[in-house]
Amino acid sequence: MKEVVRWRSERLEREVTLARWGVVGQPVLLFPTAGGDAEEIERFHMIDVLEPLLRAGKIKIYSCDSAAGKALLSREGSARHQMYLQNQFHQYVKHEVVPAIRRDCQSPDIEIWAAGASIGAFHSVAMVCRFPDLFSKACAMSGTYDIRRFYDARPNEFSEEFYVSSPLHFVPTLGGRHLEVLRTRYILMPSGEGRAEDISESFAMATVLGRAQVRNHVQSWGRDWHHDWVTWRKMLPQVMTEWTS
Hey, is 151 helix, strand or coil? Predict the structure, then answer.
């Protein structure tokens, strides 16, 4: 059921990994947290809780290394370099990961769902908003969307590479056909309100999406759910079950 492929990404200039679980079903690209790798979701038992959906042929799960997040956490190069990698990571997903998923699904135009938690939620929202012709839905759990605080940079040092990859900042600039397609997509942002959660991040993202008339919903799970894999292992199977019913 599991397959792992590796190659050297020309956009990221490093070895990358793409893992897949499942045989048939709706393809879902599940982004790791922060600097996690493609198999993080297996180690944290997300694949275990999604097993009934995988076995039923409802979904196929894919995951890739969080190369940009790893560079940011490890302070690889300068802040500007890290911002460059952030944009390149999204380009790698568009030009390398999506074609690989479509080949694996034997469908040259199949639409993909994006999902992720924390920084993975950031990337899942970015995928739908940047590439609505490729991604049709996002399940963005416990999202962190204003990630400027993670960079060692002053306010005037944020580059165009950063702004074009940050949905909080680029969505208000969209128009034309891109925005028309995006308005047919859907972004769900479930979040707890317990330890280390900040649902205000999701509401801020929802405000930006709402002003652009992009369909979205913030779903509060309350104070008993924390910023933790226990929460996300409960959230994602529930959402995927609803979306595939």
Answer: coil
Full pLDDT tens readout for the chain, 245 residues:
899 999 999 999 999 999 999 999 999 999 999 889 999 999 999 999 999 999 999 999 999 999 888 888 888 999 999 999 999 999 999 999 999 999 999 999 999 999 999 999 999 999 999 999 999 999 999 999 999 999 998 989 999 999 999 999 999 999 999 999 999 999 999 999 999 999 999 999 999 999 999 999 999 999 999 999 999 999 999 999 999 99
Longest Cα separation, the chain: 51
Distance CA 57, CA 3 (A): 16
The DSSP element (H or E) to which 118 belongs, if any, is: none
Burial status of residue 164 (CB atoms within 10 A of its CB: 0-12, 13-18, 19 or more): middle
* Angstrom distance (rounded) from CA 85 to CA 98: 18
Beta carbons within 10 angstroms of residue 181's beta carbon: 14
Domains of the chain are 2-244 (3.40.50.1820)
Assessment of whether the complete model's pTM goes beyond 0.85: yes
